[in-house]
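Researcher: Let's continue the batch. This sequence belongs to Ribosomal-protein-alanine acetyltransferase, and it's 213 residues. Same format as the previous ones, please.
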Amino acid sequence: MGEDDIPAVQQIERQSQMAPWSAQTYRREIRNRQSCRYVVARADTRPPNGSPSTTDYPLLVRMLQRIGLVSLLPTARPPIAGYGGIWLNERSGHITTIAVAPDHRRRGVGELLLNALIDGAYELNAEYLSLEVRVSNLAAQRLYLKYGFRPVGQRPHYYTDNQEDALVMWTDPITTTSFKERLRELRRQLYERLRQQADQPVADNPRSGPMVG
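Model: Same format as before. Here are the structure tokens for Ribosomal-protein-alanine acetyltransferase:
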């Protein structure tokens, strides 16, 4: 995510019914490379080719280049389809935000962003992953459960827009062989999903759908 992406990111935030951050907050987070990583996914119409790299980290950039469905490359300028952020909180890579534009939901973009943030956690030398998610956002919770997050508690009235509770979720250590093997298999499955969708037009999705998909 670059500073010139902030207006488009804030527009997706408003579409996702979240209390938007200020532009200054995003600028501060983006500039803090010691503790933060922020990424955007861009809709990309380039034709797919090739196969994924055997390299698991960092990020899925090689996968995206070959698929042509979504690109996280900072030099690409197609429209932003989604964004996410993570910052280091002691030993935890805490996912601060993740959202997908309504027209791009239910196509794996949210899962792709989550993988980008996991790589950000590795770059920051985090040992765990953590996040808060709305108790009503079952689609996002299912995604997080698939990637090894588990509920550990709730924060009452956490979201200021409607006073909804937040479910707090953590992973086990992300440095273990078991976590990395699970991640590798999930990325293989995600690559296949994106590859199959690469030649398909984006279907119309209800704007009331989940933020992550």
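Researcher: Any comment?
Model: Residues 110 and 131 are 15 Å apart (CA to CA).
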